[in-house]
């Protein structure tokens, strides 16, 4: 692996997306270090992050343990998992999943994704669900959305969401790392 590998460049982009901004100043790297520690409970120093991004010299080859922690920050189990995901860009989904067609009206489903998002929904009919508890996600109690399935390890794309009779823009849950937990209650 080189410092400019496509996998490493992808990981850096994912980190910036998760962090919410491009990393351009020393303060950005300090804040990212704090954000990583808060999210996964592991410390990566700001100086290590600066070297990895080439903000300071020498730009050294990162340790695999550092890459694993950064991948965890982005919702992946490890750097190897992230690299495997990049190689496997299409295929049939064999992961655990719940199809809306298998649910009875009134059935509740608990969904989880990073970072610490837990949402409880109730199946209404067809493909329609009602949010009972949005937790810390952007979904709110009372929102209604359509979904044909919830797929473990894959993002949840909601293109039809209504809040108080108003249609909202499309929403992606678990953009990095996908759905991490599905429980039919």
Notes on the structure:
By secondary structure, the chain is an alpha+beta fold. It is built from 5 helices and 11 strands. The protein has helices spanning 6-19, 26-40, 46-53, 64-73, 79-87, and strands spanning 97-99, 108-113, 117-125, 128-133, 144-146, 149-151, 156-158, 161-163, 166-168, 171-173, 179-184. The strands form 3 sheets. Strands 9-8-5-4-3-2-11 form a 7-stranded antiparallel beta sheet, with no helix packed on it. A two-stranded antiparallel ribbon has the order 1-6. A hairpin with a 3-residue loop joins β2 (108-113) and β3. α1 crosses α4. It starts with 5 loop residues before the first helix and ends with a strand. The model has no long low-confidence stretch (mean pLDDT 89).
């Amino acid at each position: 692996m080189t410092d400019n590998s496509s996998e490493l460049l992808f990981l850096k982009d994912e980190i910036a997306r998760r962090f919410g901004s491009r990393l351009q100043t020393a303060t950005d790297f300090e804040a990212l270090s704090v954000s990583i520690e808060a999210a996964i409970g592991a410390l990566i120093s700001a100086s290590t992050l600066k070297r990895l991004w080439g903000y300071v010299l020498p730009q050294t080859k990162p340790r695999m343990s550092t890459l694993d922690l950064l991948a965890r920050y982005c919702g992946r189990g490890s750097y190897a998992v992230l690299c495997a995901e990049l190689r496997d860009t299409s295929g049939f989904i064999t992961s655990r999943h719940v199809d809306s067609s298998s649910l009875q009206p009134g059935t509740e489903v608990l969904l989880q994704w990073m970072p610490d998002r837990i949402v409880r929904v109730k199946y209404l009919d067809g493909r329609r669900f009602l949010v009972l508890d949005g937790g810390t996600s952007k979904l709110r109690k009372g929102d209604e959305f359509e979904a044909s399935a919830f797929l473990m390890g894959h993002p949840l794309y909601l293109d039809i969401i209504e809040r108080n009779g108003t249609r909202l823009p499309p929403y992606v849950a678990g953009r990095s790392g996908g759905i991490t937990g599905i429980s039919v209650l």
